[in-house]
From TrEMBL, chain B:
A Pfam family annotated for this UniProt entry: Asp23
Protein family (similarity comment): Belongs to the asp23 family.
The protein, known as: Asp23/Gls24 family envelope stress response protein
InterPro entries for the chain: Asp23 (IPR005531)
Native organism: Gracilibacillus salinarum
């Protein structure tokens, strides 16, 4: 059915539906709030403001749309909260001004009212910031003028106007850098879009949906949630009045005879108890919103006039500390891939992390991590799929067990030495599947030869060699090959044993805690003279027990 | 008069002029403010709106020991909820100063020096 006029009763219904729709979405709008101060209250403020406006409309005479618009503007002005609330009150003050002498609303007067609203809103600020609710109001009014030229049916007209408002909202990040930085649309602008959507639903006589998924982008909300860490600038201790307290009292005559109700006086009394005070009353009911430190005292003041219809108390310190709680308490999104490995020494840990390891368990050789330690590290990696590199033959078993226990897909690449683990890391590619990575990493680790230098702590016989306490030992891939009282002699023999000048291209030296600059220089000099075509790289591993680890490829 | 911050690497001195300029700049972006006024207006009785280079005349930075207090003299738009506009200015200025200078402001006192009626 085509109609092109809106009467006062219908317009009142539109306004009230707009307010309801905003109330339903207030928390989502709060979540978007990053500008001008990221304190996450835009939705709350707009809701308080527009609820006050809608309440005036409910009480108003509904003989003409002008009366309704005036009542709405008055209620908005009285209940204005926050920047967004003040701007909203100005937009609709101008809107009402634009309806001078109108009993009904048609497309043309709607356009005039929207434009008048924008004019009034822009006059009350020295330096309008674009990319905000002001911009959305301006663009919408501008587009409405164009839409009016093509539409005769007021419903289709308003539908297109809402579309235009949404388009403008989408553009806000282009105008206001902080929005783009965070990746959200403007919260006040989003509020205005929601109000216009409610107007449309009210015009069609539809119920507004309880929640709103269409324009509220989940990504927006998530981004804003991250940005809320900006709210760290205000510490939870700074909250002076800790409880957001709201209640409604229905007046009772016998109580009123004892305590006559006077709104101004009541407001005065309440203001002693906190801030962010809002008192709205009519002949039957008073509604109070206040941030107070002692909600009980506030309730007692209200109860003198009648009985409670409803009560609500929220601990804002809790809410705030939730917002600014440390990042690690937030469940972070799981990464597709994680790598858990084992090493001793800060240098080695850094080295493995630089190659892409997610978690490096401190251990190996004399202190092998348990199955539980590895399982914990797999959890800590917080990934869908985890690769475990034990880097020690005595840890492979524990790693296999931890893999079976884990709730995510785990692949163990049975690396037995640090160099094998490093070689495996070099062929790790997060783009590939778990199985592909497991294969490629195992393949890579099998090509590397490992040399280790350590010393004996007692006299012993191993692998047919007699080893004296305090002597140095050289191990090739875990087997003792040389032993001598002089470390450099051991290193030289071990490297001659390991390096194949025809095949090998690079020797990586990982210096342990007990290494020295002179020794390193001697080792480099030896390799460069002995094996002319082989390159040498030295890294500080700071590992205990093994003064040097060699990786040969 | 200036604010001294001591960091591990030395001193940082922020003059009151800088604080006043940033506070004034943040204030004029606040919705509902149509101008900054001179503090002297009380004596002169002339409501003059300050130009940007003179903002500091409408922003007074006071130090009492560690605490920094700011007094701002503003002119607001007629028809707005003035108490709310003042409160918005306080939170916006406080946030901007803390964000840009890392300064904790103890109080921001707003003096409404005028209400501007804008002819439609």
């Amino acid at each position: 059915m085509t109609h092109n006029k809106i009467d006062a009763a219908l317009f009142a219904n539109m306004v009230i539906t707009g307010a309801t729709h905003l109330s339903n979405n207030a928390d989502k709008i709060d979540a978007l709030n990053v500008f001008p101060v990221p304190d996450g209250d835009t939705g709350t403020n707009m809701n308080l403001s527009i609820t006050s406006g809608a309440n005036e409309v409910k009480k108003a005479n509904k003989d003409s749309v002008l009366e309704v618009a005036n009542a709405f503007a008055k209620g908005l002005l009285m209940g204005a909260r926050g920047n967004s609330g003040v701007i909203l009150s100005q937009i609709f003050r101008g809107f009402a001004k634009g309806l001078e002498g109108k009993e009904e609303l048609d497309i043309d007067s709607f356009v005039t009212a929207l434009e008048s609203g924008v004019n009034t809103a822009y006059k009350a600020v020295m330096k309008p910031v674009e990319g905000t609710i002001l911009t959305v109001a301006k663009d919408t009014a501008h587009d409405a003028k164009e839409i009016a030229k093509q539409e005769e049916d007021i419903e289709s007209f308003l539908e297109k106007v809402v579309q235009a408002a949404k388009k403008s909202l989408k553009r806000t990040p282009e105008l206001l850098p902080v929005l783009k930085e965070v990746g959200v649309v403007d919260s006040g602008g989003q509020g205005l879009v929601v109000i216009y959507e409610g107007f449309l639903a009210g015009l069609k006589g539809e119920e507004v949906p309880q929640s709103h998924d269409e324009t509220m982008d989940l990504d927006d909300l998530v981004n804003a949630e991250h940005h809320k860490l900006a709210q760290d600038y205000m510490s939870t201790d700074d909250i002076e009045f800790g409880y957001c307290t709201e209640f409604m009292v229905r007046f009772e005559d016998d109580k009123l005879s004892e305590h006559p109700y006077d709104e101004a006086k009541f407001r005065e009394e309440l203001s002693e108890h906190g801030d962010s005070l809002l008192v709205v009353s009519d002949d039957e009911i008073v509604k109070v919103h206040i941030h107070a430190e002692y909600p009980g005292d506030v309730f007692n003041l209200g109860q003198r006039f009648g009985s409670f219809i409803n009560l609500k108390v929220e601990n804002m310190r809790e809410q705030h500390s939730k917002i600014v709680e440390p990042k690690q308490e937030k469940p972070k999104a799981k990464q597709p891939f994680g790598v858990v490995t084992v090493a001793m020494g800060t240098g080695l840990t850094e080295l493995l992390k630089s190659l892409g390891a997610t978690v490096v368990i401190q251990g190996g050789q004399t202190m092998n991590p348990s199955t539980q330690d590895i399982a914990n590290a797999i959890t800590e990696a917080n990934a869908e799929q985890v690769i475990v590199l034990p880097n020690n033959k005595n840890i492979v078993m524990a790693a296999e067990q931890a893999a079976e226990l884990a709730e995510v897909n785990v692949a163990v690449v049975p690396t037995k030495t640090i160099p094998q683990g490093m070689a495996a890391m070099l062929s790790y590619n997060p783009e590939n599947s778990l199985a592909e990575n497991q294969e490629a990493m195992a393949e890579a680790s099998s090509h590397v030869k490992t040399g280790q230098i350590t010393y004996a702590v007692r006299d012993t016989q191993i692998d047919g060699m007699t080893i004296e306490n305090g002597h140095y030992m050289g191990l090739a891939d875990g087997k003792i090959k040389v032993t001598d009282a002089d470390q450099l002699t051991v290193i030289q023999s071990l490297l001659r044993e390991l390096i194949d000048p025809e095949e090998d291209e690079i020797v990586t030296v990982i210096s342990g805690q007990e290494s020295s600059e002179e020794e390193e220089q001697a080792i480099i000099a030896f390799i460069e003279t002995e094996f002319e075509d082989v390159e040498v790289e030295v890294h500080q591993g700071d590992q205990p027990i093994y003064s040097y680890i060699f990786s040969i490829e | 008069m200036s604010i001294e911050l001591t960091t591990a690497d030395g001193h940082v001195t922020i003059t009151n002029e800088v604080i006043a300029t940033i506070a004034g700049g943040a204030a004029i972006e606040c919705y509902g403010i149509v101008g900054m006024a001179s503090k002297k207006q009380l004596r002169d009785g002339i409501a003059e709106i300050l130009r940007k280079e003179n903002f500091s005349r409408g922003v007074i930075v006071r130090q009492e020991g560690e605490a920094v207090h700011i007094d701002m003299y503003i002119i607001v738009s007629y028809g707005t909820k003035i108490s709310e506009v003042a409160h918005n200015v306080q939170s916006q200025v406080k946030y901007n100063l803390e964000k840009t200078l890392g300064l904790k402001i103890s109080s921001i006192n707003i003096y409404i020096q005028g209400v501007r009626v804008i002819q439609d």
